[in-house]
Design goal:
Layout: E1 2-6, H1 15-24, E2 29-33, E3 36-37, E4 43-44, H2 53-63, E5 66-72, H3 87-96, E6 102-106, E7 109-110, H4 116-130, E8 136-140, E9 149-150, H5 155-165, E10 168-172, H6 173-178, H7 183-190, E11 194-199, E12 201-203, E13 206-209, H8 218-224, E14 232-235, H9 245-263
Parallel strand pairs: 1-2, 1-14, 2-5, 5-6, 6-8, 8-10, 10-11, 11-14
Antiparallel strand pairs: 3-4, 7-9, 12-13
Length: about 260
Amino acid sequence: MNIAISTGTFYQVPFVQTLEVIRRAGVSHIELLAHWQGNNGWEMAQHLKGIPPKDVLKMIRESGLKISSLHDGGGVIEAGKASLIAESTLEYLAHGDDDIPCLVFHLAHKKTEDHAWRDSYRATAGRDLRAIKGKLVCVENLPTLPGFVALSSEPADLLAFAEENDIYINLDTTHYAQMDREIVEAAEALKSRVRTVHLSDYLAPHRHLYVGEGVLDLRGCLSRLDLPALHAITLECDIAYDANLTKTVDRIKRAVDYVEEIVGT
């Protein structure tokens, strides 16, 4: 099992700087959050905007870090978009197939009032994800965005979707907290299919807090999972970036220590 850091944590600084601070902290694996920008104004991983995936992969190789997973940051289905899978994800796979063992996808959202869309798109999403061969494919529980209709992240529905398509689940602790779902109960319900975790704390309305700074029972959640079956626990929490890199490096180390103490590594 890998303990990884999401590169999206440091979206506000240049990507090379992101890799350097993670490397200095002694972490060997990253979850690469791909840049995504939608018509609705949602943008992720801004530090990768305009950088071709092949150049991003080159920077990672030169850093000595390993990709634990590639996180397709989209999931919003907009006009003219037929697939859940972003074009940039296909580019990453074309240029770095050997570098990417695992892919994490958001469940699909669409800005619409048509709830029938959800049922019809479920088969399309499953087909697209099944078509990815030779990778661990995980879908992430995502709370419904205001004004959108989404495939359901309710544990029973998410488990059924994963099982019927022979794919796996990325359990995001903050996202279930946003849905007012107990993360320990969600972990228990989903454990047969959970292979990756996005770990962060939560204290409403604050999301993706640094581990230990919110109210979530992260220890209880992880204890319910089949830890030997996990591919990765990814820290997708608010590790604040400081111009004094020593402070940032120390904070990453403390977060990793927190996880290692819980899982007994």
